């Protein structure tokens, strides 16, 4: 399976490392910033790196030829329809909430702010609407009393994201398709950015 990874920062690097250990071919890494640590890690591993022409949008020409699946890992760019069409299975991303709850940015912060006793993570299909694509995999964890968003991310949600991504990749290898369950819009929440 050939993967194009679109991402940034620490979670992008840990996703890259998980993919390298998971018997898939990472055809290309796409980043918004040439100085990002994900770009450096990919170059060090001998993986082709492309810097997005527009930091808010990934286009088809930035996706590696013969890509089976696009994976986003801490990317704030929209993956264009043409880019999704360039990959045999389209694209998936990880969102650190139990979608459709806490769509959008600052999902972990909103989990804490809302006092949710349970948090979770979702692997979802990339789609036109942000964080609204079908669910490929989902799991949950408890939120500890007094835990900060950063604590929750580092303790539970980042590792959960890596596990769920690996599970979905394993599924795709066997079934040559991705699981998909439509999100139930009656439970959707979308919070404004935290100030």
Given the C-alpha coordinates, what overall shape results?
Answer: globular
In the CATH hierarchy, what is the architecture at level 2? 3-Layer(aba) Sandwich
Number of domains: 1
CATH topology: Rossmann fold
What does this structure look like?
There is one protein chain. The protein has a 7-stranded mixed beta sheet with strand order 3-2-1-5-7-8-9. It has a two-stranded parallel ribbon with strand order 4-6. It has one domain: Rossmann fold, CATH 3.40.50. The longest helix has 27 residues. Strand 2, helix 2 and strand 3 form a beta-alpha-beta unit. The mean pLDDT is 94. 30% of the residues lie in helices and 24% in strands. With 195 residues, it is α/β, with parallel strands linked by helices. It is globular, with a radius of gyration of 16 Å. Helix 1 packs parallel to helix 2 and helix 1 packs parallel to helix 5.
Summarize the structure.
GO terms for molecular function: methionyl-tRNA formyltransferase activity. Keywords: Transferase. By secondary structure, this protein is of the alpha/beta class.
């Amino acid at each position: 399976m050939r993967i194009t990874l679109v991402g940034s920062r620490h979670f992008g690097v840990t996703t890259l490392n998980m993919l390298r250990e998971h018997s898939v071919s990472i055809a290309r890494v796409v980043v918004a910033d040439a100085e990002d640590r994900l770009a450096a890690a990919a170059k060090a591993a001998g993986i082709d790196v492309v810097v997005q022409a527009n930091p808010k949008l990934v286009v088809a020409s930035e996706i590696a030829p013969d890509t089976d699946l696009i994976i986003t890992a801490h990317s704030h760019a929209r993956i264009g329809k043409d880019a999704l069409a360039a990959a045999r299975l389209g694209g998936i991303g990880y969102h650190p909430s139990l979608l459709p709850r806490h769509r959008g940015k600052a999902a972990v912060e909103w989990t804490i702010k809302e006092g949710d006793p349970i948090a979770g993570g979702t692997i979802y299909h990339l789609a036109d609407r942000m964080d609204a694509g079908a669910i490929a995999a989902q799991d949950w964890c408890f939120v500890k009393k007094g835990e900060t968003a950063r604590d929750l991310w580092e303790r539970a949600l980042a590792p959960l994201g890596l596990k769920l991504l690996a599970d979905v990749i394993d599924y795709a290898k066997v079934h040559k398709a991705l699981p998909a369950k439509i999100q139930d819009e009656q439970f959707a929440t979308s919070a404004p950015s935290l100030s």
